[in-house]
Amino acid sequence: MSPARTSAKRRPSRVPRRPAAGAAVAEVHLPSDGELRRLAERVLKLSDADETEVHIDFVADALTRFANNTIHQNVAEQAMSVSVRTVFDGRTARATTNKTDDDSLRRAVAASAALARSQPKNPDLLPMPGPQKYAKVERYVPGTAGATPEDRAVAVSRVTELADQNRQTAAGIFSTGASVTAVVNSKGLFASYRQSRAEFSVSILEADSSGWAKASAADASQIDTEALAERASQKAVASRHPKEVEPGRWTVILEPAAVLDLVGFLFYDFAATAVLDQRSCFNNRMGKQVMGENVTLHDDVTHALQLGPPFDGEGMPRQTVLLVDRGVPRNLVYARSTAKKMKAKPTGHGLPLPNQDGEAPFNLVFAGGNTPLETMIATTDRGVLLTRLWYIREVDPYEKVLTGMTRDGSFLVENGKISAGIRNFRFNQNILEMLSNVGQMSPAVRASGEEAFDMVVPAMKVRDFHFTEVTKF
Amino acid sequence: MQEWTALALDTAKARGASFADARVVDLRLRDLSTKNGEVGTLAENESLGLGIRALADGCWGFASSDVLTREGVQACAAQAVAIARASAMAKRADAAMVPEQAYVDTWQNPYVKDPFQIPLERQLDLLLAADGEMRRVKGLTLAETSMHFTRLEQWYASTLGSRIHQLKVQSGAGIVATSFANDEIQKRSYPNSFGGQHQLAGYELVEELDLKGNAQRVAEEALALHKAGQCPQDERTVILESSQLGLQIHESIGHPIELDRVLGMEANFAGMSFLTLDKLGKLRYASDIVNVVADARLEHGPGLGTFGYDDEGVPGKRTDIITGGLFTGYLSNRETASTIGLDRSGGTMRAESWNRLPIIRMTNISLLPGTWRYEDLIADTDDAILMETNRSWSIDDRRYHFQFSTEIGWEIKGGKKTRMLKNPSYSGITTEFWNSCDAICSRDYWTLWGTPNCGKGQPMQTMGTGHGAAPARFRKVRVGMAFAK
To answer: What are the helix (H) ranges across A323-362?
Structure first.
């Protein structure tokens, strides 16, 4: 999109300098594979179960939050958890602690055993898997893991300065951090994964309008915080004095974050357990043309724009799965026990046991198109351009009708141009129908929203999107 | 544990903090669930750590750690001060707070039966019995049950001199019957969606719910919904039963009265509020029979928003939010109270655990009882839709426009509850809706519901909130838009 740039006169920079001396504070030390193995071994030695599995998770995250052009919240967290799953004669349960002294680990093992022994035998429980091989993924950037509050404050200050210059108000977050996760079991399986992660989200507010932009990456240096703020600023300018237009069926251009938050609601429908439980919208629809031929969807943890471990909650390697092929749902994802029940092969998407949900794909990748967003706008006679959606909830689980609101940058497009900002709509939209009405798509990008986990999606131009009511701003 | 909070405060002061408060939290959880006669989740979780909030150079920093050693606590406190100094790099004004006195106290909620002392076998037996009752109904495709227990022990201290120990025990349980037939999914939950009913109570709450005794009914209703008529698309009188009304209060009153939203602090994520400061004491929020309070005191009931002290050391209190229909109060903390010129904090700072910063959260936001007998309310209603048990909920980021749908509806005709309706939904603008309220049932029909899953903040925090409500009637409400074609 190309909304008008602000005409506010620029003022001198007030980007601050870093403090002269850093305080002696907690430094992040991510556990090494050796340390993870040694910790897991201590747990395994404490267990007399038939089989024992240990999950270790370590997180060191920090988040700088700003509003009203100042930092108002600024937090850091460091935490380790050790989760123990024991198996006794076909019964299993989990206990978790964040303390790693011998007594606490012993107590966690005992709690897991007591929980496991308290229940009836589970005929579907499979023996734990042995050692596995995993796809190699590199998603750890030391500079992002070790980013300081000063690093974040400098970036935020530049954004608040931009807002000040434009006589706008900025609010948002800049978070950085790292995590380590490991699955180890008494059959000799060892899987570990580490990643860094940065996320920047910015809203720019004016008296009667707003704009928004967000990005996330393993490497903070890939996030251009000022460019995102500039984009949000331009949207706030372009949506000034929003006018009310009538609800109904509209041609809608959804930016990637809006696509993400809608299609993210489909993710659990691809779980084999959801189909088995008859609560997936793909019940009776597998192999049928339920979306347009231009919609193809994979789950692919190895994709260059994806994050996350290449193994599942049991330590099984995540496979790349073709979920939708040219509009036809072809495959589901399977945990080991679901695969056995449904006579399929496990795909490495199981959730940590025990659970009742089975599995889920967490690395959705849409095949995009080649139409730039600007071309979508230029080829639209009358439509709506949406930046972001909000408070999306499922109205009808089988027809996959979702409701929600538009937010922070909704525009009327007329004769190939953005003509005005508009008041926000409520939508009630069948998502399968929406994915049958996709006319144009941009190349897929890593998108970050609020309702769904980050995924790789294109912007989409969609026919007959259903707005049902309008709010007051 | 107070030796750790004292060490943290001493370190923060030595590093130059002008104010600090610290919390050690020892959190224990137990989750049980069943699905179609088999155990689903069976897990316990314990988590112990310290969080410290420090004010330095006029700005805030917060750090948390689970390394409860002398070195770990000192490093954590030093980090909080260092973060505060980094915050000052983008400062516009020094943070200011209204005064508060020091308290040395201990508090715990009353409960009869410690849920963590009840044998697991007994808890599972109860769930499996309810699960079995649901599956006795032929055609049901999915029977689910769950229990959730929390024990949160907290030691709070501040540089004001407060030292407060609190223990909160929370219980919750519920069942869900789901039916897939004729390319349609219908479900019924008991006693509420969101995992059932949740209160600051012991295992006695679970026993009082009688999950097994209600299992067959909800399963039969889930199946019957397939054959029920569709909720019309129309403007109608609507009667909301109390759990749905509780969520209506949560979304269209509880969130917009949060002062951090009003002041723009949540603009990027949770959003802002239509309740700008000029509306306090002037806005006709609701009809004159509507009275809403925010009440964290035990005398209000065992709600998920009940406590002795909030997480910045302010005693739990009551604030009148809507008085005779007039908007009269916000949810505040010490800082936002100062910003808008209040004398004292409303005592609503709450954190999910040791690793989260306290932020303004709902306590128990309750609609006070009216005068109607439920039977009289139905008899007095010529043509309406009675809606029960939430299925979906959505509201805009300033809390004007909402849409809710419920699991089941009933047509009221000529003062009688008649045919069942499926896919009921209603939508509207907050103040228009509340001003259309013309009848509220009495305390005999009033329930303090627990919403265990309220999300807010960055990083996200999940918090339990309480909402007391009795069935109430609303006129000229738009219904059926969720399923409009």
So the answer is: 336-341
Task: Give the tens place of pLDDT for each residue, B75-87.
Answer: 999 999 999 999 9
Domain boundary among A233, A266, A296: A233
Count of CB atoms within 10 A of residue A287's CB? Answer: 11
Scan residues 127-166 of B and list those with Cβ closer than 8 Å to A: 128, 141-142, 144
**Which of B64, B67, B392 comes nearest A395 by C-beta?**
B392
Q: Which of residues 236-295 of A touch B (CB under 8 A)?
A: 277-279, 283-284
- What gap in Å lies between CA A238 and CA A2, rounded to an integer? 9
Does residue A335 surpass a pLDDT of 90?
yes
pLDDT at residue A21, rounded to an integer: 35
Contacts of B301 (CB under 8 A, 6+ apart): B199, B364, B448, B466, B468
**Residue A155 belongs to domain spanning:** 33-233
ipTM of the complex: 0.96
Residues A209, A68, single domain; the answer is yes
Give me the pLDDT at residue A3, please. 33
Looking at the structure, tell me whether residues A216 and A339 fall in a common domain: no
Per the CB < 8 Å rule, is B79 touching A61? no
Question: Looking at the 3D structure of chain A, how many domains does it have?
Answer: 2
Interchain proximity A25–B79, CB inside 8 Å: yes
Task: Please indicate, yes or no, whether residues A287 and A213 belong to a single structural domain of this protein.
Answer: no
Could you say which residues of chain B have pLDDT below 70?
A: none
Stretch (H or E) spanning A232:
helix A225-238
Residues B219, B181 contacting (CB under 8 angstroms): no
Give the pLDDT confidence score for residue A27 in this predicted structure: 59
Beta bridge partners of residue B403, listed in sequence order:
B394, B427
